[in-house]
Specification:
Helix content is 29%, strand content 28%. The chain is of the alpha+beta class and 106 residues long. Strand 2 and strand 3 form a beta hairpin. It starts with 6 loop residues before the first strand and ends in a 7-residue tail after the last strand.
């Protein structure tokens, strides 16, 4: 039986446009793989704007306990990648945690 996610953990960060491709590749290589090993699913979204590029990582979890085990503590704490300070405009201070109310596919 497949476990359905009940929790979405959402991280958002932004870069300058000139380093957006570099950050995307870095996040795919360093940030996403640990999530792929543990979470039920992960998405990396990118929004290119004129003066900045936003990245959103959404990971899906069976419950708060599984997410807390992954984060080794406070699931709302931000776990920055080593190069985030160099590549991001500012270090995000928060993670959003949402309870999944509806998960329907057409």
């Amino acid at each position: 039986m497949t476990t359905k996610p009940t929790i979405a953990r959402i991280w958002r960060g932004r870069t300058r446009p000139e380093v957006a491709d570099e950050y995307e590749a870095y996040n795919l290589a360093e940030g996403v793989p640990p999530l792929e090993k543990t979470a039920l699913g992960v998405q990396l979204l990118r929004e290119d704007r004129e003066d900045e590029t936003w990245f959103t990582t959404i990971s899906y979890w069976a419950d708060m306990d599984s997410m807390t085990a992954f984060t080794k503590g406070d699931p709302q704490a931000v776990h920055h990648l080593p190069r985030d300070k160099e590549l991001l405009i500012e270090l995000p201070e928060k993670i959003q945690i949402h309870r999944i109310v509806l998960d329907r596919k057409n």
